[in-house]
Amino acid sequence: MSKNKNPLTQKSSGATTNIILTVIVVIVAIAVIGGVLLFNRGGGSGGDSGGQTVAADVLRKPDSNLLSEAPDGKVTVVEFLDYQCPACHQYYDNLTKKVEQDYQGKITFVARNYPLDMHKLAQPAARAAEAAALQGKFKEMYHALYDNYSSWAGSGEQLSSDVNKANAEFDKYARQIGLDMDKFHQDLNSPQVQKKIDADVADGEKAGVSGTPTIFINGKQFQPDVQTFGELEQEFRKQIDQELAK
C-alpha cells in the first residue's frame, strides 16, 4: 500500500471525481482479487531485488524484534510492515508465516514497524506488539494480530477505525498469551514504545521504504514480478535458498 494519497482524487471534482473514483474502485478490486496489486506494488522489473544493498545497521537494530534467528547469521530477512495493511495480511497468510515456520533456525527474520497514516489502527496495533515485546512475547502478539486480523482491522476495502474495539481485542490477545495486564496497559502508550515505533519508521525511510510490505533479503529489496501467491512464494524461497547456498 502506498504511503501517499492518489493525487488524481485530490485534483478532480464533481462528476469527474465520481467517475475517477468509480474506475479506481473497480481497478483496485480486480487487482486485489487477482493478486496483481500485491506483487507489482514495488515497481520491480524482475525477480532479483537488484539495486544497492542497504546497510545492515539500518535494517536491524539490537532491539529489533525477531520471528526467527539463525546461529550462523548467513541470511537475514527484514520486513517493514503495517499490521492493518491488507497486503501485509495477505503476505502473512500466503508467504511470511510459512517462511517463518519452514526456515526456523535457518534464517534470521526481523519484523519492523512501518504504520501508514491511512490505516487508523496501524499505530495502536504496533503499540500492542511493542508492549508485548517488553514482556518477551512479541512473536505471540504478532501472530495474534495477523491471525485475528478481521476481528479488529476490518476486511477488504472496509477497514475499521474503531480504536476502542481494537484495543478490546488487543487486551484479549494479551490475556491469551499470558501478559501482565497492568504492565501491558502502562506500556501501550509509553514514550518508550512510541520511540521504538518511530525509530523503525525512520530506518524504513533511510532504507527507501515507501509502502508496505517491503522486504529485504540480505540487504536487497525483494521486488518480484509475479502474478500469483504461488509464484510469489516460489520466487521468495528461491532467493533465500540461493543466499543459503553461498
TrEMBL record:
<dbReference type="InterPro" id="IPR013766">
    <property type="entry name" value="Thioredoxin_domain"/>
</dbReference>
<dbReference type="InterPro" id="IPR036249">
    <property type="entry name" value="Thioredoxin-like_sf"/>
</dbReference>
<dbReference type="Pfam" id="PF13462">
    <property type="entry name" value="Thioredoxin_4"/>
</dbReference>
<keyword id="KW-0732">Signal</keyword>
<feature type="domain" description="Thioredoxin">
    <location>
        <begin position="48"/>
        <end position="245"/>
    </location>
</feature>
<protein>
    <submittedName>
        <fullName>DsbA family protein</fullName>
    </submittedName>
</protein>
<keyword id="KW-0472">Membrane</keyword>
<keyword id="KW-0676">Redox-active center</keyword>
<dbReference type="InterPro" id="IPR012336">
    <property type="entry name" value="Thioredoxin-like_fold"/>
</dbReference>
<keyword id="KW-0812">Transmembrane</keyword>
<keyword id="KW-1015">Disulfide bond</keyword>
<keyword id="KW-0560">Oxidoreductase</keyword>
<comment type="similarity">
    <text>Belongs to the thioredoxin family. DsbA subfamily.</text>
</comment>
<keyword id="KW-1133">Transmembrane helix</keyword>
<feature type="transmembrane region" description="Helical">
    <location>
        <begin position="20"/>
        <end position="39"/>
    </location>
</feature>
